[in-house]
Amino acid sequence: MSSSALNFGYPWWLTYGHLPIVAVALLLLLVGYWRKWSKWPMLLVAAVFLWSSSALLISRFLFDINGRGSLPTENFFRGGTGRVLDIGAGTGRSSIMVLEARPQATLVALDLFGESFDEHFGPGQSPQERLLRNLQIAGVAQRATLSTADMRKLPFEPATFDAIVSAYAMDHLNREGSIQSLAEAARVLKPGGDFLLMLVAKEPWIEFTFGPLIMHAGTRGAAWWGPRVQEAGFQVVEEGTRPATLYILARRSLP
Ligand SMILES: C[S@@+](CC[C@H](N)C(=O)[O-])C[C@H]1O[C@@H](n2cnc3c(N)ncnc32)[C@H](O)[C@@H]1O
Fold it and tell me: What pTM was computed for the model?
C-alpha cells in the first residue's frame, strides 16, 4: 500500500505552519516594492520571508513528521527475530518503522490512548482503531498486537521482550515519570536485549525552524538521558542525532 494512505495525524502546523507566514511576508514584499518602502522595512520583511520559506521546506521534507519514518540506526535489533515492545506507540509511526525493518519480528504496540494521545493527534475515531488502521495499511498488522497501559507500570512479566523501542514518548513525562518508565523498560527487556530510545532533540535544525515552540518539559538532551538510561540498567552502545531527533541505542546489562 502507498504511504500516502497512512495518516499519522500529527497537527497540520508541524508540517505547514510556516505557510501563512510565507504568504504574508510575500504579500508585504510586493506591497513594499509597489509603494517604494525604504531599505530597512524591506530587509526585515525579506528576512522573515527567507526564514519562513526555508523553515517550511525543512519541516515538510527534512522532519516529515507525518511521513513514514525509518530506524535511525541499523544496529537496533540486528538479529531481527523475536518480540518487540513499542512504548508510546501513538498512531503507529514507530511500530511501522520496526516491523518494516525487521520482517521476522512481532510487536506489541503499547499506549495509554488517553489525554496525551488526544493532545497529539486530536480526538475522533477510537485511538486504537486509528493505530490499527495504519498498521493494516502498512501491511504489518498481522505481526502486531495492541496494549492499553501506562508506560510507568507495564503489564508484563520481567524479561518478556527481545527488544524495545520508544519514540518521542518518554520525553512527554516529567523527570520522575521518565525515570519510572526507563526502569520499567529495563525490567521487561531480556538481558542483552536492545533498547532504542528516540527523543525530540534540542538541535539547530529544530531551533531554526520552530524556535522555542516545540520545546516541552521533556526536551532535556543527551546529558540528562544518557546517565538515566545507564542508571536504569542499560549500557549505552550508540548515541546520535538526526533532524529533530536524539537517539540512544542501549543494551540491557547482563545479570
Ligand atoms: C508523540 S506521540 C509518539 C507516537 C509514536 N511513537 C511516533 O513515533 O509517532 C507520544 C505518545 O505517547 C503516549 N503516552 C504519553 N504518556 C504515556 C504513558 N504514561 N503511558 C503510555 N503512553 C503514553 C501518548 O498517548 C502518545 O500517543
Answer: 0.93
